[in-house]
Amino acid sequence: MRDWLCIDLICRAFWNMERSIIAMGARRLQSPNFAGIRMDSGRYHRGDDVLYPSVRAYAATDTWMLARQLIQMPGFCAALAQYCEVMTRPPAVPWPVNKVFAQKLRYIVCFVLIGNYARWRRVGGEPPTLAALQRAAPASARQIAGFVNSLRHGGYVIAERHASDRRAICLRPSSALLQEIARSPLAFLEAAERILVPEAQIAAHIGDDDDRLADWIRLSVERFQADDILFGPFATIVHFTEHDCGYPLLAAVMGAHYAPLSPDAPRALSLTYAVLAERFQVSRQHIGNLLIEAERRGWFTVAYGGRSVAVSEELVRQFETWAAGQMAHYRIIAAEVARDLR
Question: Is the model's pLDDT at 40 over the cut of 60?
Answer without folding.
Answer: no
